[in-house]
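Morning run. Coffee first, then this:
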Amino acid sequence: MHIRSVALLLLALSISSPRAEDAVRVYAAASLTHAIGDVSDAWFRSGHPRPTQVFAASSALAKQIEHGAPADVFASADRKWMDHLAQRKNVDPKSRVDLLGNELVLIAPKGRGFPATLDAAFDLPGAFEGKLCTGEPDVVPVGTYARQALTSYGWWTALAPRVVGTDDVRTALAFVERGECPLGIVYATDAAISSKVEIIGRFPMGSHEPIVYPFAIVAGAGSQARPYLDYLRSDAAQQIFRRHGFTPAPRR
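And here it is:
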């Protein structure tokens, strides 16, 4: 092959092949791990660079972005941490969208559940021995929702000394799976991925603030951020989220 032909071929490949540096960088709440993973796989199969994904508690991710972490799209498990970044101009406010909802559930290790009634007349603190695992109540969204729910039934004061606050919801799930906590509060979508836990109660919406997942483009994001966020809103992506148990975001 002539040198000129080789040069043209290389030029064509450089134009048609997606560059690694164009891959969108997604920072998403731990509860979105499986769903975002599947959505990103579908995005990749449609001809885009495979996204770089980082999953952790919304609080941890927000602080990383605030301090310059190289993210393009941020997905939080509550409005609080998205507001935190918006107030500091770390996200594009015009791109922000409340995309998903979820449900808060009470779980126990498989085969070790007990009849639990989510009613103020029921003595949940007295119904089990040991610890209750959930996200850190003052920081991690699932823990904040859990505290609100337990408070609404008058159980928080008695249970607070027994609450184990974890770094994220998946860690709380793991503690219950291993039986280290006989009770836990996680999202329904997290409980659904585990064969080692059982749901013994579902907290009604009125017992806590609506569970909302806001998404937004991070300030200074790369060129793939907007197309990726648009894809997350597409019917194809929404079908994947529904398959994982997520619901449409509750309206304000």
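Confidence is low (pLDDT under 50) at residues 1-19. Good start to the day.
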